[in-house]
Specification:
By secondary structure, the protein is of the alpha/beta class. The chain has eleven helices and five strands. Strands 3-2-1-4-5 form a five-stranded mixed β-sheet, sandwiched between helices. Helix 3 packs antiparallel against helix 4, helix 4 runs antiparallel to helix 5 and helix 5 runs antiparallel to helix 6. The chain is globular.
């Protein structure tokens, strides 16, 4: 609970989720984390219902970094999208489908990342010429991509199909990069917002290793117990605290907690 409260007080938090099995059924391990804090929760659902019950996102007012899973956008906090995911999709379009705008977009995003890292504030000034140039080039590349990936013509305009028409992978990515431009490029103007969601992915990766080695959770409460213990151990490690001492302290009803949690309270 205290780790969760400290995460709610954090300006930027990474979110991710991964499938994991409990009693033979697919469940989802959700993670909310920072460089110093880790919170896990296991739930039978992946989307908004699980996020509501785990109690972080409904009360969070900072910036959530994630991979564009649509359930995250049902919450009113600020959002930033993982550009590592975008680079993977752009690489596929460039290498497999010879979409040259995608190669140029890869170069632009990496250039923007390097420009931020070169600044003492780790971001660009909102009135800087460099920022204006990146935004203009970004818009131009999106337009080039849209011109090359026009929606397919309707085969029978008189016969209306239900739902959205099917689009290519390139068009779907272009629509996302255009519609969520501010979230894609949030790292440019905010010193604490990262380029990607690697922190969240690192914190969720260990659960996949655990399942690979130890298998699924056999009991009904196994996942909840694992999430609570693992979140505490991960938080201790991130703060360079002794894990064994921390585990022993929980049996004395006075768990060792890093200074960042006490400061948040």
């Amino acid at each position: 609970q205290r780790i969760g409260q400290a995460i709610l007080a954090s300006e930027v938090v990474h979110f991710d989720e991964t499938g994991i099995r409990q009693q033979g059924k697919l469940h989802w391990l959700h993670a909310a984390s920072t460089a110093k804090l880790t919170f896990y929760g296991l739930h039978a659902r992946r989307g908004k219902e699980a996020m509501d019950e785990l109690g972080i996102l409904p009360h969070y007012t900072g910036c959530a970094v994630h991979d564009h899973w649509k359930s995250y956008f049902t919450f009113s906090c600020k959002h930033s999208l993982c550009n590592a995911h975008h680079l993977r999709e752009l690489t596929y379009l460039f290498e497999q489908e010879q979409q040259h705008w995608a190669g140029s977009m890869i170069a632009l995003l990496l250039e923007a990342k390097q420009a931020c890292e070169a600044m003492p504030e780790n971001c660009l000034a909102e009135d800087s010429v460099e920022l204006a140039s990146i935004l203009l080039r970004y818009d131009a590349l999106i337009q080039v991509g849209l011109d090359q990936n026009l929606p397919p013509p309707e085969k029978n305009p008189k016969k209306k199909k239900r739902g959205r028409p099917k689009q290519s992978k390139a068009r779907n990515l272009l629509d996302r990069l255009r519609s969520f431009k501010d979230q894609v490029l949030a790292f440019l103007v905010h010193p604490q917002i990262p380029f990607d969601n690697n922190q969240g992915e690192r914190d969720i990766r260990m659960a996949k290793l655990k399942q690979k080695i130890s298998g699924c959770f056999r009991g009904q409460d196994g996942g909840e117990i694992f999430s609570r213990i693992r979140g505490y151990v991960s938080t201790l490690r991130k703060n360079d605290l002794n894990i064994l001492d921390g585990i022993q302290s929980t049996f004395k009803q006075s768990p060792i907690l890093p200074a960042i949690i006490n400061a948040a309270e």
